Amino acid sequence: MQADWAKPSPASFVNGIRLASHVTVTASITIGHDSTGKPVEFDIEELLATRLLVQGNSGSGKSHLLRRLLEESAKMVQQVVIDPEGDFTSLAEPFGHVVIDGAAYSPPEIEGLARRIREHRASVVLALEGLEVEQQIRCAAQFINALFDAPREHWYPALVVVDEAQMFAPSVAGEIAEDTRRMTLSAMTNLMCRGRKRGLAGIVATQRLAKLAKNVAAEASNFLMGRTFLDIDMVRAADLLGMERRQAERIRELERGNFLALGPAITRLPVAVKIGPVKSGLKARAEGLMALPETAPADMEALLTGGLAEEVAQAAPPPPAPPRPRVEEVEQSIATAEERQVEAPAEPVDHSEVTERIDAIIVGLAAEEGAAFQSASAQYQTFLTRCRRERIIGPMPDIGSFRRRFAEAANGLGELDEETRARIIALSAQVEDDLLGPFFVIAKTAHAGETTLDEEALARAYGTSSPGRIRRLLGHLERQGLVVVREEFGGGRTVMVPGLEGIAAE
What we know:
single chain, alpha/beta, Rossmann fold, Arc Repressor Mutant, subunit A, 3 domains, 12-stranded mixed β-sheet, 3-stranded antiparallel β-sheet, globular, HerA-like
């Protein structure tokens, strides 16, 4: 850790007026070393103004990186850590952080604690491991909002570290309630977009860039990208680092504890950095294999079964069942429901109209940018949510039927005449659901007799940008007998679909 302090000059007086002395402070820390052994420094003052995004798969060293950053800057700036897994509570003893157990306080108390933290400039760790996932999200959102809404006189500079940020700023609706999702997205957006003027510098760490809301990730100007294997995450990481997409493979090859760094607080050009050691945390971690205990089978059985009945008998009793509703309440509820049915008699459902409205929702969803890169379950959940919002009453398509109709809409089969569309759909009967999109692109192109195959459309339909995956896709479809691929000496490739006129060449 380095800190250069310019000594203040003695105060002087002019015409009886005291002139304030000027202090110049430059604070930087060493986060690690590059491949030549040169230290890679982090300008903490610049970080306060430009924010940080850390990304890496599980086991890439994200928590180690955050711990290094927090330890090295602990004496320079106030720190607030949102910790869903209890990884950073060990900062308390060596660095004086106050650990707040989120499960021990009510929502108003959490907000009151946040206001006091800003007032007294305390470095804290909000430990959320004792809560269920949705409770963690709501607790963190209320805590961040209270930090954000602190009075202006308490807008002191502070680093706000959010680990597992994809939980608190999800890119798509998941299993949490919609009001919880709106609350947490609002809190995280305020932190990253408007927090700087209030002294709050957001540091978000995530395993999956694709699962992190784009408006949250886009506000960071500094990046530390660790190892990741999924194509969509590598492409987003390469875009943020200003790398060409063919260079994205470099991210997959990073070793544990190594990150690609870029940003005004670190370096103007991407540099590979190996993160330095830390002082807190677990001192002895089980890395790799460990020898099993040398215990005889009979002794091990005794350890497992001895006194088991007594231990179970002493376990805490289950919580009491909620009281049953009174008979009057049940009768009132039934009467209210009957009144609603009488006031709004059910009308016969027009199934053709329901089908048209469902098709319109699927077409609209398929036309949205990035929809093809979402998982099928996420697409289907969004579809069901929009159907409920439109108050559509009638039989809903199951996920298999939805995926086929989504693939048809996303790849323009509705633009074809009925006979051609029916032929292509009949040929696709043996195609797996996740390959329908690319098969429709190939079949549509082949039927049109075009001489080129749109690689971007094929990649978009398959949800990838990797040429290697496209080649493997064509090979798989050919082995299934669905297409015929002809290699040419010049390196070109023609793709034909048996049963359709026309040839598509790649």
